[in-house]
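Moderator note: this is an archived Q&A kept for reference. The question asked for a predicted structure of one protein chain; the sequence and the answer are reproduced below.
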Amino acid sequence: MRHGGGLLVSVLVAIGLSLGCAQADAAIAPPPAGTTWLGVAPQTVTPGVAQFAADAGHSVGLVEYFRDWQQGFDTATANSVRALGATPVVTWEPWNASVGTVNQPLYSLSRIISGAYDSYIRSWATAAAAWGHPLFVRFAHEMNGNWYPWSEGVNGNRTGDFVRAWRHVHDVVAAAGARNISWIWSVNRDYTGSTPLAELYPGDAYVDWDGVDVYNGGTAVSMGGWLTFSQMFDPTYKDIRTFSAKPLLINEMASAEAGGSKSAWISAFFAALHADSGIRGFCWFNFNKETDWRIESSASARSAFAAGVTGLSLAPAVL
């Protein structure tokens, strides 16, 4: 989904690479078997998380928010999320979100690979390391689409550039000592014309978690018509499992109201969640944006969501 919204550490290259490979050792582990994390991407962290939790009938374990490369590590928001008893999920976007266009040559993958942003990345990573608590970093998400400047085939990017850029950023962050980060490689659900996922996977040494975004736009937003969660998620999940066995989160998900029954869509999602132990947590995209994606878009949607949450065995956050 489109969103509008240094301190140098000298280390030997060999040590940096060693830290990069060791990142998986420090990764956030999946919740206990039979449990899942309830999460939200709120339009505002405060008071959005509290309102969502009240309407969902349960506190959340994950809070996802979006930060572009105009911003340093947001310690204040990370502290706010932790104070709510949740683990931060930082969607870290290598662009200028205020420009909001795909064509941003300053943020081409080749410039990232060349080291043009290394000073910024080190500064961000050093601050994240100083913060010191576990967090997820969801870098350059939905790269298999064509609506962000870090996707291949747009903004001057070529085949293979995404993997090279990911590995470069990962290694700079690891060399800065930010071992409290767990990396989420997060894709948009497969669709006709999307970039093959296997070509974009950086490799197991550079990824801790897999992620998928799933939106039912119905007739409100042009996303292929009214589709169930399983119709969108299952083919993508099977695709990912051909090359990665990393634990998986649903990083963004929501349904429109127009075109069908949102409450029924939500209920069917929870049924799919019960049937698929491969989903270890999910974040509902609780924005009123292109359409009203929130669980509060109608009384029936809110009731269906709260009922679904009641039937889950929820895991606490990793703090």
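Archived answer notes: The radius of gyration is 19 Å.
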